[in-house]
Amino acid sequence: METVFGIAVDGVAYGMILFIISVGLSVTLGLMRVVNLAHGAFAMVGGYIASSVMQGAGLPYELALVAAVLLTVLLALPLERLLYRRIYGSANELAQVLLTIGLCFVIVAGMNYLFGPTLKRIPLPDYLSGVVMLGPKAISAHRIFVIGAGLTALVGLWWLLERTDFGIRLRAAVDNPGMAAALGIRTERLYAATFALGTGLAAFGGVLGSELLPLEPYYALRYIVLFLAVVAVGGAGSIFGSAAAAVALGVIDTAGKYLIPNFGEFFFYTALILILFRWPHGFFKRGTA
Amino acid sequence: MTPRLQVRGLSKNFGGLQVSSDIDMDLLPGDRCALIGPNGAGKTTFVNLVTGVIPPTAGTIRLDGEDITGLSAQARVRRGLIRSFQVARLFRAMTVREHLELAVLEREGRTFRLFASVRRVPGLEEEVASVLDIMGLEAVAGTRVGALAYGQQRLLEIALALAMKPKVLILDEPAAGVPHSESQRILDAVDRLPADLAVLMIEHDMDLVFRFAKKIVVLAQGRLLCSGTAREITADPRVREVYLGSRANAHRPS
Amino acid sequence: MTAVATNKDTGKPAGKGAPGRLGRAVRDHAGVPVMAALGLLGFWLFPEDLGLMTRILATALYVLSLDLVLGYCGIATLGQAAMFGTGAYAAGIAAVHLVSDPLVLLAVGGVAGGLIALVTGALILHAHGLTLLMLTIAVVQIVQEVANKARDWTGGSDGLSGIDPSPVLGLFRFDLYGRTSYLFALAVLLVMFLVARRIVRSPFGLACRGVKEDPLRVQALGGSPRRYLVGMYAIAGVFAGVAGALTAVSTGIVGLDSVSFTWSAEALVMLVLGGTGRLYGAVIGTVAFMAIHHILAASDPFHWMLFIGLFLMGVVLFLPGGIASLGERLSGLLSRSPSRTAEGDRP
Amino acid sequence: MKSVLRGALLGAVVGLALGAGPALADTVKVGVIAPFSGPFATVGKTFKEAIEVYQAQNGKTVGGHTVQFVYKDLDQANPAQSKALAQELVVKEKVGYLAGFFFTPDALAVAPLIDEANIPAVIFNAATSAITEKSPLYVRTSFTLWQATVPLAEHVYKTGVRKVVTAVSDYGPGIDGETAFKTTFEKAGGQVVDSIRMPLKSADFAPFMQRIKDSGAEAVYAFLPAGPTTLGFAKAFNDNGLREKGIKFVGPGDITQEPDLLALGDAALGITTTFHYSAAHDSAMNKAFIAKHKELFGSSDTVTFTSAGAYDGTHLIYKMVEATDGKRDGAKAVEAVKNLAWESPRGPLKLDPASRHVTQNMYLRVVEKVDGQLVNKEIETFPNQPDYGFKGK
User: Fold this and answer.
1) What pLDDT does residue D227 have?
2) Is the pLDDT of residue C72 over 90?
3) Average model confidence (pLDDT) across chain D
4) What are the sequence ranges of the domains in chain D?
């Protein structure tokens, strides 16, 4: 029983971290139909920014997190204008893959040049670096914080996409771009805003997840499969789907590693295949945010 | 004479909604029949039921006497029940000739030949040439479909159907989107179809219907309203009621 | 995931009497002899770089296999290395335990690659888009994990070494300078290229291109899109398997990297650089990618990623058909025959 | 046609760029194959810097022959590419020696080639015991997992620990480490209660920690490749309360290699390792090495075990060049050094003639904070440890 509880807690915690990093990708992929393989690169850039403003400018963790999100968005918006805008639309998937992987390479090379190839840290404040006991189960305070942040992001996104004017217009623009334009919705701005949302979430996740996915220049490429798995299982564009998928994959991975560590990889990918057989479009189709 | 296509009691429910109910129809070899009806009459559903895209709730469909109700769409195609599409569904990057070659090869089940050159399949070039000739498409045989005028794409749709040697051909609004001035070309092409073929045309354009059809079937609210010659149909008060009541709808492009 | 390349290998000359038919026929038949001549020229010009050039040739065959699925069927896959690696390991294991004839080893690799592609293709090719992409990734990860676990057979992460093929046709020994390897690889590539061209111009190839454009329409013609996809996937698996076996034979070792996600992704990059749906685009892309990598990595490895990143973005934005389309565009500019641009134009 | 022509042009350009550089008279070239880009780029950097330090200290010539190093980038474990690069080095650059090799498969790949060309390959790192069995021309100046693990296992037993769980990454070196620990520890009378092999791509280590906890072990022997995975493992060890429970964390020294210590931070404190080299090693020769490194490159933060492997490897190459008077005779060169003993920054070294691998001191180290900086503090020496994993022919 304790084992089951342990697996559940670890799995959910891992899943929430996956969710926080992947949900931005789900937003851009599902709502803008852009296969953004540079998503991990934006997460990494966010992490690096947080790391350097903390260690360079001495900002506290919370402010560094905000700075990382804002600066990453600021850096990414010109890219949206120059690059992404040319490849919107589902007919361009291969071009999207190539362009964004190219961008990813450039960012990796840039980070390597600027910060060197070694691991970078984002030091945690004291109140997050301890261990909390959940009954018999020890879990780091940071993970609890991440779970909280994940739930906040989940609710916030749901509210943003379902309950605000922005969300309504965005979904209208996605479902029927021509009609939206005729109604005077400025799709270009809407897309830029959504892209900013996606990259902001990436940076947010990059900073919060850095305890688990450590920062180094190859971060951008190393974890992209994991992020894609979450989005594929969750259903692109579905916020709740991403959360469900992330937690499911987190629990599956944790259970596999705990129960049969020597075959953990088999377990994970076999489960992934079975899930995709059962739900070929993900847990939730796009549209049900 | 056995009807080429025999439909009996064909019905379809979506949930509680009766979209087709109890439709009977016979198509004899050489028939030139038109299926008309106002929007929402269930014409598309009827075509989808007959071609096997959706399964019927009740009823039977026979092709040359054989019960094909339980067969898949592909199996029906292979038996000679062919349709053309309302919106041209073509392979944009392929040439006109390649379309016809593919259609013929599919019909003959030769597409799993890996090492034969398309060029050297016996009889293929002749057959494609003859279809091109019938449809008047020789001049554009080497052109990619993406670069073809819309009217020619519609012709190619019919050419594709022809290349599949149909027994029954269903033309789903063959002139949709084609300017009125050009619809005659399509009709000419339809006229050149083999005489023993049974053709069912679904069409909104009454001019076209009257020029083409010897027999007209009217569908309304999923039911067979009436059938007969052009004169009988125009004289039928029920048709006038259905049509005049929703005249505006009937001519709206779909 | 389709639609980057719009130019297609039409597989036959355009309408009768169309202008340039002769020119096209010449180009059509000159391609392979030119490739062979260039290959031999390379042999003669750079006798000291045969190791690298052999790798380029084997890789070109691997990328060619990807073109068969992506360029002719529109299957977006990041799992092509599963077939390459299976072929390489099968050939390697056969070489260590059973036979040493290089041609037999290639056949073993091809059969193994084809079988794994047939089995996995039948399982996953019902899916589309991102789901299919994930499934192909999952397959390659599982195959890699199998190779890692089966240490007794594959050597695990240490690699499978001790592959010592006998002389080609019993005559030509694999020498230190890589002469035999190179010529052997060149011959294999040319033969496989011809076979691939034959296949894409066959009725089967035509049907596959139809599926790539619109599977439902193919269904309406009475065809079964899934069978074509699985068929071509298996054929491409044979090609990838032969490429893997060729690498194993010419280098004498197989590593886990040959069944990696990275290796799959690299193939995709090389193919799209060269241009999809043309076959020779795969060859050009591979040569360009690997040669540039070699030069840049020799001068400063850190710049490699920056350069290839910019190069990729440049190709997507300014040359959507890949490098191979450059030649087509140039010839299009030179001979402005209006009918030509509309037709399936083959340089 | 045009595109093919382009290919030809490109080929010509490639050829010109590659073919440049005539061979210098009386220069012995050494080809170094190592990762200079990619996730393991630091390794190549440490190799190159150590070689340059050695050359700065000892001159670029030996016995009248200039020794020139040619570097080839191999960013990941890719044996086929390793072979192609080695072939190029031998055929085109006409190198007399091959060196470097971070990953085992890359080193194994060149065995047939060095045999045929009769040139020695000096392995700076690749740590699987079996490599040197594959060709008599391999010489290795690094360490093996067996070499580091056997004294560690004995030490752990001596401290009174009886129950240990091993947790290693599921690849060659990890399995070597697991086997070495298990064999030694059980021979001593201890018990390995669970052997966990973790997938290389693991990101979350919490489940393994739970398993370690549940196993009731008093210590965990861990081996993972340096970098993000080790960091994740060490963090998880602390976050899941294993440290608080008093479980000891031991392993070979790769896991606390110097360039990663900064990022590991306090999570690394108290990890006990055995290894052949620590940048904090207290000897005149090491101090001179570090000082020279700082002088040449501004910082010595990245100096680590791979630096030591390359430094001593360079020493061996110099000795071999001297012994063969610059001629290309691999068998003779190896013969000349295979009983060599010398002093290195890491301590006394001696090649074992059978395995051609260095017999060396292993140091027991604990990660501590010295002057605010984390270092591997050496607390005990196990002298003259051979490669226990070498089975011979």
Assistant:
1) 76
2) yes
3) 88
4) 25-143+284-353, 145-275+362-385
Taken in order D148, D154, D160, D164, the sign of the CA dihedral is: positive
- Interface ipTM: 0.86
Taking the Cβ of residue C304 and every Cβ of chain D, the question of whether any pair is shorter than 8 Å is answered with yes
Q: What would the pLDDT profile of D290-332 be if each residue is shown by its tens digit?
A: 999 999 998 888 899 999 999 999 999 999 999 998 888 899 9
Q: Using CB atoms, which residue from B93, B111, B146 is nearest to C223? A: B111
- Tell me the pLDDT tens digit for each residue of C246-304: 999 998 889 999 999 999 999 999 998 898 888 999 999 999 999 988 888 776 666 77
Which domain CATH number covers A17? 1.10.3470
Out of 3.10.180.10, 3.40.50.2300, 3.20.20.450, 3.30.950.10, which CATH number does the structure's domain D25-143+284-353 have?
A: 3.40.50.2300
Domain range for A70 is 2-117+146-278
Q: Of the candidates B77, B89, B164, which has its C-beta nearest C214's C-beta? A: B89
Helices H / strands E in chain A, number of each? 13, 2
Contacts of D210 in chain A (CB under 8 A): 3, 6-7, 10, 258
Exposed / middle / buried, residue C256 (Cβ in 10 Å: 0-12, 13-18, 19+): buried
The pLDDT of residue A1:
66
Q: Tokens 């592959």, residue?
A: C163
CB atoms within 10 A of CB D341: 10
- The pair of three-digit structure tokens given for residue C177, joined into one six-digit string: 């300078």
Using the predicted structure, report yes or no on whether residue C49 has a pLDDT greater than 50: yes
Q: How many structural domains comprise chain A?
A: 1
Using CA atoms, how far residue C122 sits from B111, C126, C141, C142, C183, in Å, is: 19, 8, 18, 16, 36
Class of domain D145-275+362-385: alpha beta
Q: In this model, does residue A159 exceed pLDDT 60?
A: yes
Q: Mark whether D and B touch (3+ CB pairs within 8 Å).
A: no
**Distance separating alpha carbons of residues B38 and B206, to the nearest angstrom:** 12
| Per-residue pLDDT at B16 | 74
Cβ atoms of A170 and A31 within 8 Å: the answer is: yes
- Least confidently predicted of A44-48, B85-89, B214-218, C98-102: B85-89
Residue C187 token pair: 């011959």
Angle at C302 between CA C301 and CA C303, to 5 degrees: 90
Which domains, ranges and CATH numbers included, belong to chain B?
1-80+166-254 (3.40.50.300), 90-165 (no CATH)
**Beta-carbon separation of C313 and A113 below 8 A:** no
DSSP-derived secondary structure letter, B35: E
Burial of D331 (0-12, 13-18, 19+ CB in 10 A): middle
